[in-house]
Amino acid sequence: MKTLKLLVTSLAFALASGVAMASNCPNEAKAIDAALSKDTKLSAEQKAEVQKLRDEGMKQHDAGKHKESMETLGKAKKLLGI
Known about the structure:
Elements: H1 2-37, H2 44-62, H3 66-80
Helix pairs in contact: 1-2, 1-3, 2-3
């Protein structure tokens, strides 16, 4: 009985964390958009790379690949310095 309860609780936490991560992708993209709209010290090529990563991250999000999306959006944020 304890094992079953532990299994159900673990599964619930795993599902909740997946939902939380999935809903955070758009927030990360919004942060990137806000940073790009400000005067940055990035070159045009760097800005284009950030935009490419942002767009790719949101495509991954839309495809349900939230872990990959967060990694891609993280790369864009790193280039922006945020």
